[in-house]
Amino acid sequence: MTAQSAHGARFEAVGIPLAAILGAVALFAAFCALVGASPVGVFASIYKAGFGSWYSWQNSLLRASPLLLCGLATAFPARAGIITVGNEGAFVMGGLAAAAAGLVSAGGPPWWCLLTMAGAGGLAGGAWIACAAALQHYRGVNAVISSLLLNYIGIALLLQLVEGPMHDPESLNFPASYPIPQTHQLGHIPYTRVHYGLVFGVIACLIAWFLLERTVWGMSVKIVGGNERVARLVGLPLGKIVLTAAFLGGACAGLAGMVEVAAIHGRASQAISAGYGYVGILVAFLARQSPLRILVVSLILGAVLASGGILQRDHELPDATITVFEGILAVLASETLSGRFSFLRARPRAEIREMADVKP
Amino acid sequence: MTESKPHKRSAALTRRESLALLACAPLMAENRLPIGFVYNGPKNDLGYNQAHVEGKQQLKSLPYVRAFDEANVPETVAVEESMRDMIHQDGARVVFATSYGFLDPFVLRVARESPDVQFFHCGGAYHDGSDPRNVGVYFGFIDEVEYLAGMTAGLMTRTGRMGFVAAKPIPQVLRNINSFMLGARSVNPSATMRVVFTGDWVLPVREAEASSSLADQGADVLTGHTGSPRVIVQIAERRGIFATGYQFNQSVLAPRGFLTGAEWAWGVVYRRYAELIYSRRSVNDGSIPRRMTGTLKDEFCRLSRFGPAVSADRREAIALARQRLLDGSLAVYRGPLRDNMGKTVIPAGKTISIEDPALDSMNWLVEGVQGDVRA
Q1: How far is CA A45 from the centre of its chain?
Q2: 3-state class (DSSP) for residue A269
Q3: By C-alpha distance, which of A23, A16, A18 is closest to A343?
Q4: What pTM does this model have?
Q5: Does A179 sit behind a cis peptide bond, omega within 30 degrees of 0 on the bond before it?
Q6: B126 near B70, Cβ under 8 Å?
Q7: Backbone angles phi, psi at B165, to 5 degrees
Q8: DSSP category for residue A265
Q9: A13 and A285 Cβ atoms separated by less than 8 Å
Q10: In this structure, is the dihedral angle defined by the CA atoms of residues B151, B156, B159 and B165, taken in order, positive or negative?
Q11: Which of A92, A124, A200, B19 lies 20 to 30 Å from B1 when distance is taken between CA atoms?
């Protein structure tokens, strides 16, 4: 890579998400005007509900915390060249395993119970995504499809277990597992209503950044993701690298599921599948699979989610409004746009053509 | 000058009066009772959520109420935050949480934080002693209306076979299946009904598959209990067979084959709560009942208007049964009743009122229903 094109790639990495967000804002403003709401008022409300006060900051942070971990779930395997959308399934499996482990270890002290829950959640989520990655790597099954289908299997398993073996007969009309004792649940950060899941998410993003950007392993992941043939040529253990990356990603989603059970519901039920996994895919793509950018994007999307209510109540916009905004973002942030805007690259056109000629 | 003084004073008074009135206008608007609603699903689902939205809209008839709502709120920390926003940003004094999964731990948690706000939850159970005092629960018993809808189905079926698409084998759903079947068998003793459980509340594709397969097996009346039976009613219409609705009036989906349906009338409930709270009553001190429930008689639920396929004499028969249910000479759960495994579930001579808590743990399907509660 020449210094110039490296600079171009970096420019694109910032430019595309920025352009996506600005483009989405413009399209969304047009949408609001179409349905009869003042775009300025709507954005003012989004800001007010997302960042207007410490009170609304907490709301945004609360909603951002599962997104941090769910974003990593797509980002890790994507760095190794495998696109997965199985975040929701891994999230649900993590929550389910955490609830099961928590019930078994509830006899011990709280720290032990939470530790086993986190371990079980991470393992279950990691194994879940590693399955999809292994299917692609060894058997050529497209991981986008297999991980998507694994979501349905995960949710079906959850329903089956909370209505069957794990069912608490007390939960008559709302099937749920037996509850984890209140004393053994994950608490709140002092002086806030934000639970410790946020801390988990931030630490996970920092660890992910270190692993991917500052270690030999991270470099080899980058090579595998960049060009499989080169990776083979230099003798990298491809399967091991791909599976580890996928496992780490899935473990993050599984940990998010554990937090959902340990900090919010206190038990497993159909309610733990609230769609965070799907928003996590959007987070990862908007952040261009970079752990540090996931921190920023999660906060922005957390604020957007937090403002969903005020748009309905104060502007009488339909409840799908926020989904429309997310959808516009998803389309604009998708991978298809990268490399398409030559003006984003500080590189002469001739060089692009030259490079295109070299490609096999 | 002395003469003009009183005149001047009176003019000043009118001015002051008008100023006071002007100042009052926004205050009066602010003094309206702010009530927030949270729904789990979309407002236009022609089902469970829309029934609650329609109930909220009926509060428009009370000028002293300011009602606002939020739809598609997931049963997680999101609903907690929505309720907090309603209280802190919109000044809600009352919150109606309409989805089952909203109660524990979300409503309970926010209720503890805001003890001067009253919370009412649809369908949940209140635990005396441990749950906060500012929480109440409400629900309706719709078994009688399902019985009447089942009667209509029993009178209309030609094949004697009916189909029921259900979400989960939980007591609430089993009650509806059984009362529907009992109504059908009261007029058509050989009628049978096959039940398919889809596993979750909103699974349109699976509901459509189940409906089609029930139609393939010869069922000529379809009904169901899911978040919204819209797909079930649509498939029935497409296949040229009959359907009865649930939750909300689905007649627009099947102009030919819609017979009737069991629908909720939450407007009655919400108006009653609003009137009570406006007259300074509160669930905290018990001047509003902790648990408010009602039946057909209390107009918590109603039978949908009959479709064109139901003839006048059949409508009359059903109106008569309705009258008998209202005056108590007819009951839905009257022994002897056997379940579909042959076991007696209600002995001869015993009648269980639909308000009896014994029915809350129902785990059987009545004779004539083909299906398994463990499915």
Answers
A1: 25
A2: strand
A3: A16
A4: 0.87
A5: no
A6: no
A7: -100, 115
A8: I
A9: no
A10: negative
A11: B19
Contact B170 A172 (CB under 8 A): yes
Q: Is B244 in contact with B229 (CB distance < 8 Å)?
A: no
Burial of A30 (0-12, 13-18, 19+ CB in 10 A): exposed
CA distance readout (Å), B369 to B148, B157, B222, B372: 17, 15, 13, 9
In one letter, which amino acid is A107?
A: G
pLDDT digits (tens, 9 = 90+) for B51-77: 999 999 999 999 999 999 999 999 999
Give B-chain residues touching A313 at CB under 8 angstroms: 36, 68-70, 85-86, 89-90
Mean pLDDT within A124-150: 96
- Residue of B73, B77, B84 best to disrupt the A interface, most CBs of A under 10 A: B77
Interface residues of A toward B, Cβ cutoff 8 Å, are 49, 55, 59, 62-63, 156, 159, 163, 172-175, 260, 264-266, 269-272, 274-275, 305-306, 308-310, 312-314, 318-320
B139 pLDDT more than 70: yes
**What average pLDDT does this structure show over A129-135?**
96
Most B-contacting residue of A55, A63, A188, A313 (CB-CB within 10 A), to test interface: A313
Q: Which chain B residue has the Cα nearest residue A265?
A: B105
**ipTM of this predicted structure:** 0.85
What pLDDT sits at residue B27? Answer: 44
Burial per residue of A317-337, b for 16 or more beta-carbon CB atoms within 10 angstroms, e otherwise: bbbbbbebbbebbbebbeeeb
d(CA A256, nearest CA chain B) in Å:
13
Question: Degrees (nearest 5) of the Cα angle A220, A224, A228?
Answer: 145
Cα-based distances in Å from B288 to A335, B35, B57, B181, B266: 57, 16, 22, 36, 17
Q: Per the structure block, which two tokens stand in for A110?
A: 């709280």
With 0-12 / 13-18 / 19 or more C-beta atoms within 10 angstroms meaning exposed / middle / buried, residue A174 is: buried
Q: What is the mean pLDDT of residues B284-294?
A: 94
DSSP A70-139: HHHHHHHHHHTT-----HHHHHHHHHHHHHHHHHHHTTS-HHHHHHHHHHHHHHHHHHHHHHHHHHHHHH
Q: Least CA distance to A60: which residue of chain B?
A: B81
Report pLDDT digits (tens) over A82-120: 999 999 999 999 999 999 999 999 999 999 999 999 999
Closest to B200 measured CA to CA, from A284, A305, A163: A163
The structure tokens listed for A25 are 């804002």
CA-to-CA distance for A85 and A190, rounded, in angstroms? 34
Confidence (pLDDT) at A176: 93
Angle between helix axes B230-238 and B204-216 (nearest 10 degrees) is 40
> A68: helix, coil or strand?
helix
Give me the percent of chain B exceeding a pLDDT of 90.
88
| Minimal Cβ distance to B71: which of A49, A274, A312 | A312
B2: phi then psi, degrees, rounded to nearest 5 = -65, -30
**Cα B247 from chain centroid?**
6
The whole-number average pLDDT for the span A314-331 is: 84
How many C-beta atoms lie closer than 10 Å to residue B120's C-beta? 25
